[in-house]
Amino acid sequence: MTKQVPERKAKSGVLRSPEASENTQLSYQGTYTCPVCRHGQITELTLMDAFACSFCRHIFTANLENQTVQVVDSSQPMSWRWMGRSWQVAYRDELNLTLVIWLVESPLR
After folding, report:
1. Domain annotation covers residue 98
2. Which of 14, 17, 42, 102 has a Cα-to-Cα distance from 69 of 20 to 30 A?
3. Which residues, including other chains, have CB under 8 Å from residue 18's CB and lie 6 or more apart?
4. How far is CA 93 from CA 72, 96, 100, in A?
């Protein structure tokens, strides 16, 4: 029987996967904590080069060479880089730009 260890969020904003005790490469055969909901697990979609979350049902494409995943079922482009044991937000500048666009667009509606 294995003890369930809750995922931990470090002060740096990096999400750690509870089952990843050593550095691993991102691959379609692996199971990883979902970077979106931080509750479910992402695993390979059968017959596709993509991942899906077991909880929030988001779909991700992966760039195994760069060790990144990107949400493809959302209007906002969100990406994360796999650091061997945890996810780190990729392209922080784009997320800041998205926030600015939302703030500017809101009064125009």
Report:
1. yes
2. 102
3. 4, 5, 6, 7, 8, 33
4. 19, 5, 11
In a domain, 1, yes or no: no
Tokens in use for 92? 């922080």
At 98, is the secondary structure helix, strand, or coil? Answer: helix
**Would 4 be classed as within a structural domain?**
no
Smallest Cα–Cα separation from 5: which of 23, 27, 24, 20? Answer: 20
Residue 17 pLDDT: 52
- What are 5-59's pLDDT values in tens digits? 444 444 445 555 545 456 899 999 999 999 999 999 999 999 999 999 999 999 9
Q: Domain tally for the chain?
A: 1
Partners of 59 in the β-ladder: 52
56/44 Cα distance (integer angstroms) = 15
